[in-house]
Amino acid sequence: MVRLKNRYLLLDILYPDSTTWPSSKTGFSGPHAAQLAIHAPTSDALTPGLLAKMIREEVGEMYGDWGVGKLGGASAMGVQVKYLSPATSTAIIRCPRASFRLVWSALTYMSHVPAVTEPGTGAGQRRPNGGRERPCVFRVLRVSGTMRKAEEEAIRRARREIVRVRGVEEKGVLGDLISGVERGKAVVTSVMDVSEDEDEGMFDDDD
Question: According to its record, what are the GO cellular component terms (predicted)?
Fold first, then answer.
């Protein structure tokens, strides 16, 4: 029995165009606003089936019938989106091992996703077919031979982003504390004196 070998591409969707970032009214404010805006959620209009179709069409446009054939044909399931999270703009795509570079290159040249925007917001670009598309960048983070490895990498990167955002928040809080110290050194000095007195009672003299 022949075993079909696949590759799993972990990717995220970035929005570097600041004109399409959500406004501060939606909660994107503070020192980490730009970081969160670049990793903003994707519209629910982007479904796994639509993303797979977009990849196949891009491969066909770049490599013609030869590229589509390498994926198994236009109607085949050579490219499958195994995981798609609009909230985190993360996806895992499965494709044949022999043609994962075609999929990777197609993702590199894909520059838009469907966008559902409120009237008057200006986000997205109106297309001739009447729909809206939001400029974006597809970034491949990892190519793995198993689904589990791709999932572990996605979890690791999500944790790292959370730590990074929290670090920015803590840095901003510390900056406020430092400025407060400079504005009220007398108050801080008195607090430190009280703290030293309390610390003296925390240790026993018996050795």
Answer: multimeric ribonuclease P complex; nucleolus; ribonuclease MRP complex
